[in-house]
Amino acid sequence: MIIDVDTHWEITGDSAGVDPMKPWADQIPDNRTHLANAIAGDLLQVLPADRLPSPAELLPKLFERAEESGGPVILHPRHDSTAAERVAWMDSVGIDHCLVNPGGYWQKLDYLRPDDRVIAAQRCNDFLTEQLWDQQHRLHTVATIDFSDLDHAVAELERCRERGARAFFLYTLRGAPAGGPPGHPNWDKVWAAATSLGMVAVIHVGNTEADFSKWADIGWDLPDGAGVGGLIRLANTQRLHAAQNLVASLLFGGVFHRFPSLTVLIEEMRAGWLPWYVATLSRQCLSSPSLGDWPWPVSGEEMLHHNLRLTPLPGFGDTDALDVLAALPDMVVFSSDYPHQEGNADPIELYRPALDDLDDGVRSAFMGATAAECFARIGDPLPAVG
User: How many percent of the chain have pLDDT more than 90?
Assistant: First the structure.
C-alpha cells in the first residue's frame, strides 16, 4: 500500500463558485496582498507600518511572471481538480491513499474576527469534505479546527470525522500555539478525541506562524540594507522553530505518554534537521542530577520514534531525504505535495534510482507501511484498495 501524506486542494474550476470564505469577503484583502501575507505575513505584521513593502515589492518575480503571461499573480500553477481526476492521477502513479490538505483558502481565516473564525473554519471543512466525498475511501480530508474553545474543537473533530476527515491541522498563530500549549492537560480532550476517531495531527509549513517581534526590521530598505531579497528570505526562517516548539510541548507535557497511539505528522518543514532534533530531545529526556528523573516508564526517545512522523519533499530542497530515512527509517514517510510546484506529477520517480536500492523493508515502510500502521494502531485502518 502506497500512502501520500501531503497533497492539496485549491479552489479552482468547478469549485470556484463555492468559496467557503465568500461571506467574509469584506474582511479579506485582495489576492495579491493575501499571497504576500501567506508567504511572509508573520514578519510583515511587525514591520514599521511606514516601511512595509508592497506585495509587488516583496514578490517582484511573481509579479513579473504574471505580467509576462497576462495571468494572475500566483505561487502555484492553477490546477483544476475533481475527486475522479485526483484518483485517476493516483492510479497512474500507483498511489493508494492521499491525505488532502486544504489549499491556500484556509489561511484567510487569519483575517477574521474570532467569532467568525469558528464558523468559517467549519465552512472550510464542509467544502473540502464535500469535494472529496465521492472518493472518501481513498481521499482523506485534513480538517481545519479552531482551537479557541477546546470543547467546540472536539465537537468539530467529531463532525469532520463523520464527513470523512482523517487528520487535522495543529498550528501556531503569531508564534503562539492556538488554544494554548498542546502539551497541557487541558488539551487531553482533543487528543482523546483524535485517537478515538482515528485522526492524525498535521503540522504543515503554512500553519507555523512565528513571532518576529524585535526581529523583523533588518533595515531592508536602507542604503546598505539587504533589500527585499533579504527580507523575504528572513520571513521563512522561523517556521521550523514553531514546529519544534509544538513537538516539545507534546513530549515534555506528557501527551505522548498519555496517548501512545497518537501520531503527529510534520509536512514540508525540510528533513535534514530531524535526526539531530530527535537525538537532542532524547538526551534531554535522560535522567540526570541536573534534570531529575524522567517521569514516565517509556523513554522520550521511544516516544518520539513511536509518535512523531515527518515527510521529506525533494522538490522543496530535501536532497538528503533518503539519508534521513536511513537514519530514522521508522519516522520518515512519503508524500508528493501534488499539485503544488514543489511536488511532482510523478513523485515516486523523484526518489529513484536511490529508492530502488533501499532494503525492501525500509522502502515498503517509507512508501506506506509506516503511515498505515499509524492509522491501524488507533483502531481505524485505511482500507485496502482494489
Answer: 85
Query: Residue with C-alpha cell 517509556?
Result: 298
The reported pLDDT for the residue numbered 316 is 80
Residue 164 is placed in which grid cell?
470523512
| E-strand stretches of the chain | 3-9, 97-102, 139-143, 167-169, 172-173, 176-177, 200-204, 264-267, 308-311
Phi then psi for residue 151, to 5 deg, are: -65, -45
SS3 letters across 284-350: HCCCECCCECCCCCCCHHHHHHHHEEEECCHHHCCCCHHHHHHHCCCCECCCCCCCCCCCCCCHHHH
Output the pLDDT for position 53: 95
For 162, the 3-state DSSP assignment is: helix
46: number of Cβ within 10 Å = 15
- Sequence-separated (6 or more) residues with CB below 8 Å from residue 274: 310, 324, 327, 328, 331, 332
Reported as a single tens digit per residue, the pLDDT across 132-176 is 999 999 999 999 999 999 999 999 999 999 999 999 999 999 899
Q: Is the pLDDT of residue 315 over 90?
A: no
Longest dimension (CA), the chain: 66
What is the average per-residue pLDDT within 318-324?
93
Measured at the alpha carbon of residue 41, what is the angle toward residues 233 and 123, in degrees to the nearest 5? Answer: 135
